[in-house]
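hey can u check if this looks right to u? its 101 residues, i copy pasted from the old doc so theres a chance i mangled smth
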Amino acid sequence: MGLIEWVWDLYGKGQFLLAVDERLHSDYNEKQVECLMIVGLWCTHPDPSSRPSIRQAVHVLNFEAALPNLPANMPVPMYHAPTPSVSSGEPLITTSIEAGR
């Protein structure tokens, strides 16, 4: 499990504070940690169109805007292979090799 997946898992369980480096010895502001973790997940959302602009992220980090509502479970990235198109004017060419003895 990668870092993002791990933090998203903790976020979904409501245990994101477990991701805080123990070397901080509990010397941190929990609201700031929550904000940083959620904005970090938002910025690394698997769907690029769901990621914030820098301006949006900064507003949230400065507590000038509400935290985004992220799903409890990390969304699964969807990739769509482009379909071949002949509308570009270029012919669609396929080749095959016949195997023989």
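The mean pLDDT is 86.
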